[in-house]
Amino acid sequence: MSRSAASTFITVAPTGAESAKADVPQLPTTLEELVETAVRCEAAGAALIHLHIRDAEHRPTLDHGLLSASVDALRESTDLIVQLSTGGSVHDPLEQRLTVLDAEPDSCSLTCGTTNFGADVFLNPWPFMVELYRQSIAREVVPEFELFDLGHVDSLRRLLDQEGLPYGGRVHVDLVTGVPGGMPGTPAAVLAAVAALPPQVTSWAATGIGRSHLPVLATALGAGGHLRVGMEDNLAYAKGRPVQHNEELVARAAEIATAMQRPPMSTTDARELLAIKRR
Ligand code: KMH
Ligand code: ZN
User: What is the pTM of this model?
Assistant: First the structure.
């Protein structure tokens, strides 16, 4: 794994499955809002969109038709790499989470283990991980390995050793820190996870949930990693100042990355970094 990159690959995770539209009206939940968000976030420096979608009542859904329509609309309006969440919400059954790949995204998330998730449990048993991984390879979808805990680093190593490299041969990891029940959103936790990554890993990013957002962002930039930002992870731009639009988080990340001499990576370079299939 290269220790530092000349530019910064920025992912935006605009919606997630946890916040309610009624509580956060500025959360993009309709297809129109998602497309508008994607266009503005790409202009601000994002190269990949990590997508959870909502139904007409703004509830999280894994509906195939809606997922396909979202992938198509984002491809038509932007050059962003379209990554579908296979994590869904903590209430989604494992079998349904496997069907996400039917929408033929460029990339999919693949979480490397079960984790406590606040008062809930985010289930990712080993057989599910293996099945999802095999399907991603068969369908030529590039997985992003989401690691919520140090134990997930070990499961990633085991997965790669047992199943081989993903489609395209690149191994990109996102450290999701600061989930209540997962690894903390601290520089020490990020650096410990990075130090333990298996040798097959070619790039890594980090995100910090809530208050850990900025410390984790700064740590990742300083340590040669990439970034994920967005309202899935963080609803506060600053203390007492809610995020009004995902673009604000991308723009701030791009500004800090540029100041650190690692400006945002283009979508073209990000596609190469991840070895995304041209569809
Ligand atoms: N919504 C969380 C339960 C993913 O997108 O793959 C899981 C999650 C991870 O957000
Ligand atoms: Zn997600």
Answer: 0.98
Q: Is the dihedral of CA 45, 56, 90, 159 positive or negative?
A: negative
Beta strands of 120-239 (E only): which ranges? 120-122, 142-147, 172-177, 203-208, 226-229, 236-238
Minimal CA–CA distance to 118: which of 76, 89, 150? 89
CA–CA dist 53, 84 (Å, integer) = 9
Domains annotated on the chain, with CATH: 3-274 (3.20.20.70)
Q: Hey, how many other C-beta atoms are within 10 angstroms of the C-beta on 162? A: 10
- pLDDT, one tens digit per residue, over 165-174 is 999 999 999 9
Tell me which of 15, 19, 48, 111 to substitute to probe ligand 1's pocket, judged by most ligand atoms within 8 Å of the beta carbon.
Answer: 111
CA end-to-end span of the chain, whole Å?
Answer: 27
Q: Does ligand 1 have an atom closer than 6 angstroms to the CB of 145? A: no
Question: What percent of the chain clears pLDDT 70, i.e. is strictly above it?
Answer: 99
